[in-house]
Design a protein that fits this description.
23% of the residues lie in helices and 21% in strands. Mean pLDDT is 93; it is low at 87-95. Helix 1 (4-18) runs parallel beside helix 6 and helix 3 crosses helix 6 (209-227). It is an alpha+beta fold. It has 2 domains: 4-138, N-terminal domain of MutM-like DNA repair proteins (Alpha-Beta Barrel); 156-279, Helicase, Ruva Protein, domain 3 (Orthogonal Bundle), CATH 1.10.8.50. The protein has a 4-stranded antiparallel beta sheet with strand order 1-6-7-5. A 4-stranded antiparallel beta sheet has the order 2-3-4-8, with helices on one face. Strands 9-10 form a two-stranded antiparallel sheet. It has helices at 4-18, 41-45, 156-164, 170-175, 185-195, 209-227, and strands spanning 22-28, 54-56, 59-63, 68-73, 79-84, 102-110, 113-120, 127-132, 268-272, 275-279. It is globular, with a radius of gyration of 20 Å. The protein binds a DNA duplex through helix 5. Residues 2-126 form the Formamidopyrimidine-DNA glycosylase catalytic domain. Monomer. The active site is at residues 2-3, 58, 275. This is Formamidopyrimidine-DNA glycosylase. It holds the Pfam family zf-FPG_IleRS.
DNA sequence: AGCCTGCCCTGCGAGC
DNA sequence: TGCTCGCAGGGCAGGC
């Protein structure tokens, strides 16, 4: 799924169509995503105005005029596509996705004219929810979620202190959204490589100089990935169909056996918490 | 509490 | 060619 940079790319792609738009109609074709859609999902959305489109970690959040916010998560395989806008052919993005997996359709009267925003998700690990806008921080999705890594709320000393309290491997700690929001398997691996920190090391032993390097590396890799439009693996594309190109800049992720760009030693793959970790055993300590 | 495993679901590529 | 297996960007519940 999309991790923070991919979700941010999706947010930027959708915002011109969604922000300020009136929701004319919602078609919930399948209610069984990761969780069932909330009751009266379509009815609660119809007629509302979308005030903004924000991101929190890997979630998209759209505050509505009706006092609720639409909370969306793309899971592993979720994607949005948009029809409409000002393209001569009237089709801003021709979805390459299998229409059998178009689960939710939003028909909008937007600033750029009518638009149709379609949520497609083959694996259905994504979710949509409606929560009161006044209590977003307390809703089940965001309560306890760690700071946004690219905001001022992500403080190196606090990050170090959180690592100090953890015995688990640092890789697992980075995937824990309570410590820092938005990091997934790709950017955990990439940040650890940039910081020269072994993914196998206990988080508490990273606190200190390594922790500071990791803090910087996380911010750097996320910024660069957003600038590149995210990483396009398998099925990820921005809502305009453009492919991100950060995958060409991976130093270790999905590069088992290839040469480490720093020291030329072969990149290793191990399994931690049931997920692949890629790293260089020579320059990550 | 922290930590780990299994599981939700579909699709795709590798290997036979 | 057609099959089976393993694996995939996430996060939750349930076990210890």
């Amino acid at each position: 799924m999309p991790e923070l940079p991919e979700v941010e790319t999706v947010r930027r792609g959708l915002a011109p169509f969604m922000v300020g738009a009136r929701i004319r109609r919602v078609e919930a074709r399948r209610a069984d995503l990761r969780f069932p859609l909330p009751r009266d999902f379509a009815a609660r959305l119809q007629g509302a105005r979308i005030e903004a489109l924000d991101r929190r970690g890997k979630y998209l959040v759209a505050p509505l005029s009706a006092g609720e916010s639409l909370v969306m998560h793309l899971g592993m395989s979720g994607r949005f596509t948009v029809d409409g806008g000002d393209r001569p052919d009237g089709r801003y993005y021709a979805a390459g996705a299998d229409p059998r997996h178009d689960h939710v359709v939003f028909e909008l009267d937007g600033p750029a004219g009518p638009a149709r925003v379609v949520y497609n998700d083959p694996r259905r690990f994504g979710l949509m929810d409606l929560v009161p806008s006044g209590g977003l921080d307390r809703c089940r999705h965001f309560a306890g979620m760690g700071p946004e890594p690219l905001s001022d709320a992500f403080v190196a000393e606090t990050f170090n202190a959180a690592l100090k309290a953890r015995a688990a491997p640092i890789k697992a700690a980075l995937l824990d959204q309570r410590i820092v929001a938005g990091i997934g398997n790709i950017y955990a691996c990439e940040a650890l490589h940039r910081a020269g920190v072994s993914p196998r090391r206990a988080a508490r032993s990273v606190a200190g100089a390594r922790g500071m390097r990791l803090w910087s590396a996380l911010r750097a890799v996320l910024r660069e990935a957003i600038e590149a439009g995210g990483s396009s693996l398998r099925d990820f594309a921005a809502s305009d169909g453009a492919l991100g190109y950060f995958q060409h800049r991976f130093r270790v992720y999905d590069r088992e056996g290839a040469a480490c760009p720093v020291c030329r030693a072969p990149v290793r793959r191990i399994v931690q918490s049931g997920r692949s970790t890629f790293y260089c055993g020579a320059c990550q300590r």
